[in-house]
Description:
The protein is an alpha/beta fold.
Amino acid sequence: MGDPLLRVANLRVKLGRTAVVDGVSFDVGPGEMVGIIGPNGSGKTTTLRAVSGLVDPDYGSVELSGVRLDQLDARARAKKVAYLPQSSGHGMSFTAMEIALMGRYPHLGRFQVEGANDRKIALNALKRTGVEAFVDRQLGDMSGGERQRVLIARSLAQEPELLLLDEPTASLDLKHQIELMALIHTEATAGMGAVVVLHDVSLAARHCDRLVLLDHGKLVADGRPSEVITAENLANVFEVEANIEIDELTDRPLVRLIGPVR
Length: 262
């Protein structure tokens, strides 16, 4: 795979006296989409926030293209990393174009306003995410799937090297989940890398190139979906019994849940 785009090494993050992330290491290659999965409280969101630079690790390092992110200021980090947190109700009165243009802020000087090139980049991001028809529509007037596409357009307008997304499919129906994951994968494989926190292991298996499985803040498995999503891992980490089959067409695992481990 060559040199990684992102390298997370021995990451440790404590909240109070408790290590919510404890010794986690993984790489992301250029053009690769990596999913972070695990039960509630496993450290998924904290890991993503530490990778984004929003949380300072107590130990370990995060490097992007060989540069430690903690050596960059917030503006320099924002030029390299786009972070989309879990959905919130903020910004509902902004239009799609205004939201997309927010992604240009790291590239603007102090007191500088967006220019024609910034608007061109923002519009292109809206086109790539399929919401260019909503340029003048407010976020509050859109469906959940449309809003997520606009927010991803904002991230793309940053022109980052790495996309970080925390539960981007939460509250979406099945159709929009599949469409959104396919969109993220397309953008990632076009040259960026992407790290996506997900609860749905079947969705993660279908769309991610690799998976990182966490439990109680520790790394349990890191590999191709067929290597990570096993009956043993689901039983030990998620405490559920499941039958796992490999789809012959996609070489991806198909999960059929049976019930809680007895």
